């Protein structure tokens, strides 16, 4: 290990990222999950070499914080000694229940591996930016609809066959659909799209592709054999013509009519958690029936927990019969191989130690980056503020609240009903917009939670019968909410 990641790059095990509380590394096990014993060993290593804080990101990556240049080397050696193979290259992600979910339309892992191999063979790994990613979603109980990607493949049933819907630049709601084709064509279109992105440079994403390029991808599968794939590029012409049966929006890639698309450029660097709506966190916190036993999803509040508590949870899971622990989008851990009774017992232990065990937990409504002092850019203690708000206003949080240490808004790049953002004037309040928006009012950072309580009180008194808190916020308007926030 002899490199430190540049800003905008992924803080991989071999290239840690400098943050406010030391170096940060991220790892994704090749196997998709870890045995309880391996997670315990990894957490013990985090205690020895870091500051003891471990994180699961919005996309389901594992992060270890507070390392030094020397201890990061020791951590990497111990990860290798544990036999944990870490994925490198362009991220090609599958769901956390891939291959074990009886409800999935197709096991996405073989397709994902075919794409990884094709990307390597095409020499694209070094030509694509660090935030370019692919999703292969087999469907089932826990999909990846809420996760943004440059290219996404989703299994679809067509008569008695399984085909793949290929889309670009977005999540399951706003990605631009290119085609629905068989497995071979889906792989080739995905790699062709990545090749086009690579031709545009390391800062490019699929949202930067032209309409003509998208049209060529949509029609390519029906008119061109795979052998011509290496010649697809924006400088050498696009292959094929736009299929008449395919309809593409004329809007620019990455745009969305309600401006709520999450940019794939936003990553989790310098203590940043991966961008994404907080709604996805509630999806993973549940009990799932599997082909073999059950899986229990347990969330880390705001994606972060002391390694010692993770050790206790993993040891309890091991005692109760858990065979594997997978990292889940939405900052959660999935314990596989449990009986229904064991799931209940593990859930009780997790609740005792402060983990998120219910999708109704108010903390699932709050997106909070590490803030100060963990992030050098942070201006407010985001996690402390978030905890105080969740404890004091549990009944009022039926909307997304974003607590951001600075205007970058890493934890939730899209608009939120309310956003607290740290700045020179303290904790600013933004209404129905992103952290980059000019705040409508301010309070000192240490007093921000009390300001939200003032807003909650106004909502409580002003709500109409059957009206949600989010609807009430909209009706009250920005000026009225800001006035309530600043009340003493």
Report the structural category.
alpha+beta
Could you tell me the radius of gyration in angstroms?
A: 23 Å
Could you tell me the number of beta strands? 20
Q: How much of the sequence is in beta strands?
A: 15-25%
Which regions have little confidence, pLDDT < 50, spanning 5+ residues? 4-8, 222-277
Task: Describe the model.
- The protein has eleven helices and 20 strands.
- With 488 residues, it is of the alpha+beta class.
- Among the domains are: 17-89 and 269-359, Sulfite Reductase Hemoprotein, domain 2 (Alpha-Beta Complex), CATH 3.90.480; 365-485, Sulfite Reductase Hemoprotein, domain 1.
- Strands 1-2-5-4-13 form a five-stranded antiparallel beta sheet. Strands 3-14-15-12-11 form a five-stranded antiparallel beta sheet.
Search tags:
single chain; 488 residues; alpha+beta; Sulfite Reductase Hemoprotein, domain 2; Sulfite Reductase Hemoprotein, domain 1; 29% helix; 21% strand
């Amino acid at each position: 290990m002899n490199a430190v990641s540049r800003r905008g790059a992924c803080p991989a095990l071999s290239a840690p990222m400098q943050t406010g509380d030391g170096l940060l590394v991220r790892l994704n096990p090749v196997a998709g999950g870890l045995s309880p014993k391996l997670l315990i060993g990894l957490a013990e290593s985090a205690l020895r070499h870091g500051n003891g804080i471990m994180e699961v990101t919005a996309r389901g990556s594992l992060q270890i914080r507070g390392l030094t240049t020397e201890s990061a080397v020791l951590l990497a050696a111990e990860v290798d000694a544990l036999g944990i193979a870490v994925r490198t290259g362009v991220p090609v992600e599958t769901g956390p229940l891939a291959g074990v979910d009886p409800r999935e339309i197709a096991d996405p892992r073989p397709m994902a591996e075919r794409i990884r191999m094709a990307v390597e063979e095409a020499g694209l790994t070094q030509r694509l930016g660090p935030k370019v990613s692919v999703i292969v979603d087999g469907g089932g109980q826990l999909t990846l609809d809420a996760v943004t990607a440059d290219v996404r493949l989703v299994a679809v049933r067509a008569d008695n066959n399984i085909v793949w819907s290929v889309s670009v630049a977005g999540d399951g709601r706003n990605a631009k659909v290119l085609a629905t084709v068989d497995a071979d064509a889906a792989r080739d279109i995905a790699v062709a799209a990545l090749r086009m992105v690579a031709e545009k440079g390391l800062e490019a994403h699929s949202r930067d592709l032209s309409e003509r390029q998208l049209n060529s991808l949509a029609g390519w599968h029906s008119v061109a054999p795979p052998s011509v794939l290496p010649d697809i590029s924006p400088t050498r012409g696009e292959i094929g013509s736009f299929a008449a049966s395919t309809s593409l929006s004329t809007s620019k890639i990455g745009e969305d009519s309600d401006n709520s698309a999450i940019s794939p450029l936003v990553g989790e660097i310098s203590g940043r958690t991966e961008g994404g709506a907080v709604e996805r966190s509630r999806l993973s916190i549940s009990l799932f029936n599997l082909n073999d036993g059950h899986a229990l999803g347990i969330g880390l509040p705001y994606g972060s927990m002391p390694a010692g508590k993770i050790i206790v949870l993993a040891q309890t899971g091991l005692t109760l019969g858990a065979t594997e622990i997978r990292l889940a989008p939405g900052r959660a851990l999935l314990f596989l191989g449990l009986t229904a009774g064991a799931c209940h017992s593990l859930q009780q232990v997790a609740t005792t130690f402060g983990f998120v065990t219910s999708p109704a937990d108010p903390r699932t409504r709050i997106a909070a980056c590490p803030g100060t002092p963990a992030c050098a850019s942070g201006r407010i203690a985001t996690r402390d503020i978030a905890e105080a708000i969740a404890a004091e206003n549990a009944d009022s949080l039926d909307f997304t609240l974003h607590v951001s240490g600075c205007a970058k808004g890493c934890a939730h790049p899209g608009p939120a009903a309310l956003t607290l953002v740290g700045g020179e004037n303290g904790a600013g309040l933004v209404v129905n917009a992103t952290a980059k928006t000019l705040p409508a009012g301010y309070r000192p950072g240490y007093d921000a939670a009390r300001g939200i309580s003032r807003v909650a009180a106004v909502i409580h008194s002003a709500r109409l019968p059957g009206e949600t808190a989010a609807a009430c916020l909209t009706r009250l308007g920005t000026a009225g909410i800001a006035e309530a926030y600043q009340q003493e």
